[in-house]
From TrEMBL:
Protein's name in the database: DNA polymerase III subunit delta
One Pfam family, short name: DNA_pol3_delta
GO CC terms: DNA polymerase III complex
Gene Ontology BP annotations: DNA-templated DNA replication
Alphabetically ordered keywords of this record: DNA replication, DNA-directed DNA polymerase, Nucleotidyltransferase, Transferase
Similarity field: Belongs to the DNA polymerase HolA subunit family.
Catalysed reactions listed for this entry: DNA(n) + a 2'-deoxyribonucleoside 5'-triphosphate = DNA(n+1) + diphosphate
Superkingdom of the organism of origin: Bacteria
Keyword Amino-acid biosynthesis: no
Annotated DNA polymerase III delta subunit-like C-terminal domain residues: 200-315
Length: 317
């Protein structure tokens, strides 16, 4: 069985994947769970072993896969694995694909995208919400936190924040913590004084790449103080280093900047900044940094680490 979640809205993508994981654990308490990020080296072989290996306890096997579109050779092996093991029909092996990219990017690999979106698969495109859908989603987040709120507050939030779900959830959390008694009002939004700011991830990555710990620390402190969600920061840092790793790998193979832009489909500005920053790292260093970021992600979700503390430790080490 294949479940395919993709789209640009990273918070709601994470939210939907967690719902599937929670339902799986409740329905199959004796099931086996695996998670692989194919951006890492040699992960594809581990995926194949996980699919083909039997379980001592039986039950349904859930395998979560991320970044399967990153490497064409790995993508082809995933497609071959699905077909050879008849995984579209296999009920005891569930593959959950999670891709934080828009469909127009993923469809560049038509073969794999077509396989994952076959009619019998569970497929959901997690796009940014607008209009009534956005209003209902924000309302549901307040209800989830048992915070009464009027439509004027929701509309004020949208005016101030936009439809970026990470930023919206940050503000919802702040409002619910601020107004513990009574209904949240429009003036409460004004009182907290949210100002929309853009996260300049390039400055942060440049500070880390240049071993400028004080600048990186200052950047992180400012973002946390302004209420930026730590997981959102981790997501953006991982995105920055994933681009660095991709560009570094290609540049080490002798590709020019123009060739890197064509190969990666990155925006020329993004590719150029990554190309410059990647020169300050070896490929091994970038793999180690990205692997550490993935471990932080896993540790945070499992409740093993405090993500805010881990981020500060990351920029200081």
């Amino acid at each position: 069985m294949v479940i395919f979640l993709y789209g640009p809205d990273s918070y709601r993508l994470k939210q939907n994947s967690h719902i599937i994981l929670d339902n799986y654990r409740k329905k199959h308490p004796g099931g086996v769970f695996f998670k692989f990020d194919l951006f890492g080296a040699d992960e594809i072989a581990k995926v194949e072993d996980a699919v083909k290996s039997g379980s001592l306890f039986g039950g349904v096997k859930l395998i979560v896969l991320k970044n399967v579109f990153f490497n064409k050779a790995d993508s082809d092996r995933i497609g071959d694995l699905i077909r050879s093991q008849n995984l579209l029909k296999e009920k005891d092996v569930v593959l959950l694909f999670v891709e934080n990219q828009e469909g127009k990017e993923l469809t560049k690999n038509k073969t794999l995208f077509g396989l994952l979106t076959e009619k019998d698969n569970m497929v959901r495109n997690i796009e940014y919400l607008t209009g009534d859908k956005l209003l209902r989603w924000i309302k549901s987040e307040f209800v989830l936190r048992k915070c009464p709120v009027g439509q004027d507050v929701i509309r004020e939030l949208i005016t101030n924040v936009g439809n970026e779900s990470w930023a919206l959830v940050n503000e919802i959390e702040k409002l619910c913590n601020f107004k513990t008694v009574g209904i949240i009002k429009k003036e409460d939004v004004t009182l907290l004084g949210f100002k929309k700011t853009d996260l300049n991830i390039f400055d942060f990555v440049d500070a880390i790449a240049g071993k400028n710990k004080s600048r990186a620390y200052e950047f992180l402190f400012k973002e946390i103080k302004n209420g930026r969600d730590p997981y959102y920061l981790l997501t953006m840092i991982a995105y920055g280093f994933r681009n660095l790793l991709t560009v570094k790998d290609l540049s080490d193979r002798g590709m020019s900047l123009d060739s890197v832009v064509k190969k990666t489909h990155l925006h020329p500005f993004v590719a150029r900044k990554a190309y410059q920053s990647a020169e300050k790292f070896s490929l091994t260093e970038l793999r180690n940094v990205y692997g550490h970021l993935l471990n932080m992600d896993t540790g945070s979700k499992e409740g093993v680490i405090n993500l805010t503390d881990a981020l500060f430790t990351f920029v200081l080490n």
